[in-house]
Design brief:
Distance between the termini: 16 Å
Oligomer: single chain
Structural class: mainly alpha
Largest sheet: 2 strands, antiparallel
Number of helices: 4
Strand order of the largest sheet: 1-2
Strand content: 5-15%
Shape: elongated
Helix content: 55-70%
């Protein structure tokens, strides 16, 4: 019984780190995809996407370019939209699950 309790403690301690590593890997994956999907006229928008680590379990991925939202969703004035962040995030969900499952499996 003591062995089981010690194994559970090891797993518990490793879960946050596993999630953190999977999140960082996924954020990097999102950045790669966004840079592929982003429309390129000057390259400024594509190159502006960054990740910002808020805490071990919180990462922001985005751009400070003021027209990035209009490129993503378009405008009512007829500016055509070019989704690039949304498809990257949609593809990142299964990637994150795969990365997390692999890391959790290594804890056991």
């Amino acid at each position: 019984m003591a062995h089981l309790a010690s194994r559970l403690m090891v797993i518990e301690q490793g879960v946050d780190e596993a999630v953190s590593v999977a999140l960082h890997d996924t954020a990097n994956f999102i950045l790669q995809l966004v840079r592929i999907y982003a429309p390129v006229k000057t390259g400024w928008l594509r190159d502006s996407y960054k990740k910002d680590t808020i805490s071990q379990l919180h990462i922001l991925v985005g751009s400070m370019v003021n027209y990035s939202i209009f490129q993503e969703y378009g405008t009512s004035r007829g500016i055509r939209f070019t989704p690039h962040l949304t498809p990257a995030f949609l593809q990142a969900e299964p990637y994150f699950k795969q990365q997390l499952a692999a890391r959790i499996e290594n804890l056991g």
